[in-house]
Amino acid sequence: MITATTPKEYTSRDNIPEQYKWDLTKIYPDWETWEADIEKIEPLIQQIEALKGTFSQGPEVILQWQELSEELYKLLHRIYFFCSKKLDTALDNNQDIAHQGKASALYDQYEERLTWATQELLNIPENTMLQWIETTSKLQPYSFGIKEIYRTSKHSLSEKEELLLSNFSALQDKPSQIYSDLSLIDRESAPKRVILKDATEVDVTPINYRILIENTDDSEDRFKIQKAGAEPYKRNLNVYASIYDAVCKSSTSNAKVRGYKSALEAKLDDNNIPVSVIENLFITAKKAKTITQRYHALRKRELKIDNYRQADRYYPLKKLSSNISYEEAKNLCIQSVSLLGTDYQSAYIDILNSRCVDVFPHKGKRRGASCCSVYKKANYVCLNYEEGDFFGVEALAHEMGHAMHRFYSEKDQIASTLYSSLLTAEVASLLSEQLLLKTVRERFNNPEDKLALLEMSIDQTLKSFLTQTFFANFEIETHKLSENGETLTADTITKEWNNSYEKFFGIVTPKDDPSNYTWANLFFIYKIPFYLYNFPLSFSAASNIFSRLTNSPTEAESQKTVDLYLDMLCSGGSDHPINQIKKAGIDLLKPNAIESVIQELDHLVTELENCYLEN
Fold it and tell me: What is the pLDDT of residue 170?
């Protein structure tokens, strides 16, 4: 039996009220203005090229290079994101597709023609450059980027070698593009009709199967739906394995060429993160195994099923007694950030009410949720909000956390240091989610809602911390196989997937369970290798900041936590993430922050156990 319908979407964007659609004219009023900015790119590149061979003349030349590069970066970013955001709401618009292709080509041209600059900078002794920065105040906003070039220089290649690699970049990106094309075909394949026990017929696709499971009361029906949803990926499993093998080979080859010990070390070095941080994460996160086993034992008991499968883990024990409209979600999110101060809350309201949020799903709109900031123009949020699906409320809080991060970053940073690393960025979004859940738990306080929200709090920790740790471990282990010369097949990938799952959740996955193939649909491992380790670390930092905000013994202590947090937001991308988070009071080099997450998970599961014992 299905207890709720599949989410609806507008058939046309034209039917959506204007206040729920973003206004991209804040970036460009029309395509003619966009084209006019494109005409500015070539002269800027030529001005930078004219500086070739002159860097050693002094800090004035370095400043000129940096200022021209900054202007070029702002233009390229604005040009690209305008057509990218246009395309987000019209994926089948050929004109927008062509415009994005043109913008991407500009980026490629910029990178290819200016690869020489790094090597020319490195010809200047580092101490000389540091002295120039110290004595030239206008160079100081660019200091982090310049120092990073020197820090990573031992892994830089000669100008000729860098140019050669840049020419192969499109080829190296091809596996991820093939994945996108294949997964799009599979996602949009004809629905598979499933007949449930009560003779209800449902059409299942890889897109809708999760929400169908969440609203299907019978365990066997849930299993049928999951099998149908995974079928397109299972059908092409060997192809996905070949694509992932190529992705891993590309990552490991790039790392080897640049002299890194592993693909992981190469990725971590981008943000100066020691490998020991990831090792500590894995060691500590394993301590959650017995807690998750208790949680799922409780769920199995309360659901009264003997064969508790992966599909059953998506089904909530309790649901909120009322659906939350988008306007209600806005108000909950606004209320949730009150702990961060009136200035923060006012800026938050301004973004929500200035047509910077594209709210509802419709035909031709990109799925999921995202945030994009265009320097000194606007902070945009893209949603696919569905009343009755709490994920939409969480997504609004999450993406608004990113938008507020960029808002504060823009106060102190130049355009090229506006964006922080993902590790720092996700602290803001995940803290926003935790503040939201606190507010919702205070607002919905009847016994049924209390149980539903307690379960949501547990699932938030499992989703953002433990599941992402499992994903990261799987990705690292499969890359190790590739680094050892092994060709990844569907069987070896599935084996590593199940080994990693058992390592952190303590659950052995049966061979017939469709979750065995979930790796084939895990977007990030194909498109952005070594992306997922950020989330459990970010969640750990966010949880510790949340604890300090909500448990400070005095108002002064609470305000200190707010001030440190806002300072972290203002620092944008001007420092390494471990340093930024440490300045906010959280040291990720030590296991304490991660251990506190395990302790809080234990507390939440114990509370849920006690609630059901009382009932």
Answer: 60
pLDDT at 395: 96
Q: What SS3 class is residue 48?
A: helix
**Within a 13 Å sphere around the CA of 257, how many CA atoms are in the beta-carbon half?**
13
Reduced to 3 states (helix: H, G, I; strand: E, B; else coil), residue 191 is coil
Query: Which tokens sit at 582?
Result: 């440490």
Buried b (16+ CB within 10 A) or exposed e, 70-100: bebbbbbbbbbbbbbbbbbbbeeeeebeebb
Report how far apart the first and last C-alpha atoms of the chain are (Å, whole number): 25
Question: What is the pLDDT, as a whole number, of residue 7?
Answer: 47
Half-sphere exposure of 330 (CA within 13 A, CB side): 15
Burial class (CB in 10 A: 0-12, 13-18, 19+), 445: exposed
Helix (H) / strand (E) containing 449? helix 447-461
Residues 112 and 47 sit within 8 Å (Cβ to Cβ): no
SS3 category, 516? helix
pLDDT digits 0-9 by tens, 535-591: 999 999 999 999 999 998 899 999 999 999 999 999 999 999 999 999 999 999 999
Residue that is written with structure tokens 């002295």 in the block: 131
Q: Tell me the two tokens of residue 152.
A: 């990573």
* Inter-residue contact 497 to 516 (CB < 8 Å): yes
Residue 321 neighbours by CB distance under 10 Å: 10
Q: Record the tokens describing residue 162, joined without a space.
A: 């860098």
- The helix-helix angle for 467-483 and 275-285 (nearest 10°) equals 130
Q: What pLDDT shows up at residue 597?
A: 96
526, HSE (Cβ side, Cα atoms, 13 Å): 22
C-alpha to C-alpha distances, 166 to 114, 158, 163, nearest whole angstrom: 11, 12, 5
Say if residues 571 and 496 touch (Cβ distance below 8 Å): no
- Here the tokens at position 155 are 């892994």
Say whether pTM exceeds 0.85. Answer: yes
Q: What is the pLDDT of residue 92?
A: 85
- Which portions of the chain are predicted below pLDDT 70? 1-9, 159, 163-172, 615
Closest among 241, 262, 243 to 253, alpha carbons compared: 262
Among 18, 19, 34, CA closest to 77: 34
Q: Give the residue from 519, 534, 470 showing the smallest Cα distance to 499.
A: 470
| Closest to 475 in 3D by CA, of 186, 206, 184, 252 | 252
Query: The tokens 């992932």 sit on which residue?
Result: 244
Report how far Cα 146 is from the mean position of its chain's Cα atoms: 27
The tens digit of pLDDT for each residue in 290-335 reads 999 999 999 999 999 999 999 999 999 998 888 899 999 999 999 9
Under 8 Å between Cβ of 384 and 369: yes
Residue that the structure tokens 């299942």 belong to: 204
User: What's phi and psi for 337, nearest 5 deg?
Assistant: -95, 10
Please choose, from the candidates 412, 431, 421, 371, the residue with its C-alpha nearest in 3D space to the C-alpha of residue 530. 421
445-450: which pairs have CB atoms within 8 A and are 24 or more residues apart? Answer: 446/321, 447/615, 448/318, 448/321, 449/318, 449/320, 449/321, 450/611
Q: Give CA–CA dist 377/382, Å, rounded.
A: 16
Looking up tokens 């059953």 gives 312
